[in-house]
Amino acid sequence: MATSRTLTEQVYTDLRADILAAHYRPGQRLRLVQLARHYDVSQSVVREALTRLVEQNLCTLSPNQGFSVVDVSIPDLEDLTFTRATIECLTFRLAIERGDVDWESRVVGALHRLDNTPREVDGEPNPDWRDAHATFHRVLLDSCGSPRLLEIASSLRDSALLYRQWAVNIADSRDRNIEQEHRDLASLALSRDADGATDLLRAHIERTSAVLLAAAKRGFPVAAPTT
Questions:
Q1: What pLDDT does residue 225 have?
Q2: What is the mean pLDDT of residues 114-130?
Q3: What is the pLDDT of residue 172?
């Protein structure tokens, strides 16, 4: 029989995946009764899972409204981009300085998996690519030596994914070779070029943000190409 902790972990995982897959709209209220019925668990289990998502800035909790998916806005995206670039570049620099041969092997392996996973299957986004992409970016940072920095960077990437999931068909991004950007990030990291690697990572993050901001300012819904 599943324990309460196991159930909470499963609901947390499922809810997080559903939010990041845009199954719930930004700002949408998340009602305990409906979610408990949907995930076939108690309301207390759902509440615990949502509380964890609040800590990761994927949900909000207000006294009168209860839980909601975090909302999106142009000022928030601008602040998120600045904060994410600052934190990820710092963490990446530390990883390059401290990474050993095992880290180098993980970078090579993560890039190989990403390169060999199609971004779309039958015209639809491929969740395996999204997982491979997240793993690649996580591995780039994971030898930094600071669990707190890694946790912050991961939370910021999740917040950015909400925006990417809510963007649609933005032509401005089609001239990018994102696959080559990933290869270049790995190459610079493995050659221990911390300045070049962090400059490219900052540009990598800011390019997608610029596309999203342009789309939002033109009145398009937001969420676009993955960095």
A1: 39
A2: 86
A3: 45
* 4-69 matches 74-217 in fold: no
Is residue 125 over pLDDT 50? yes
Give the Cα separation of 23 and 214 in Å (integer): 24
For residues 132 and 182, is the Cβ–Cβ distance under 8 A?
no
Pairwise pLDDT comparison (156 vs 20), residue with the higher score: 156
User: What pLDDT score does 171 carry?
Assistant: 39
CA distance linking residue 12 with residue 18, whole number of Å: 10
Q: What is the pLDDT of residue 224?
A: 40
In this structure, the number of other CB atoms found within 10 A of the CB of residue 6 comes to: 11
SS3 2: coil
Q: Rounded CA gap, 56 and 156, in Å? A: 8
Domain formed by 4-69, architecture:
Orthogonal Bundle (1.10)
How much is the CA Rg of the chain, to the nearest whole Å? Answer: 18
Give the residue extent of every domain in the chain: 4-69, 74-217
CB atoms within 10 A of CB 132: 19
Query: Which two structure tokens, joined as six digits, stand for 214?
Result: 């342009």
Whether residue 49 contacts residue 8, with contact meaning beta carbons closer than 8 Å, is answered with yes
Per-residue pLDDT tens for 145-155?
A: 999 999 999 98
| 74-217, CATH topology level | Four Helix Bundle (Hemerythrin (Met), subunit A) (1.20.120)
For residues 162 and 19, the answer to whether their CB atoms sit within 8 Å is yes
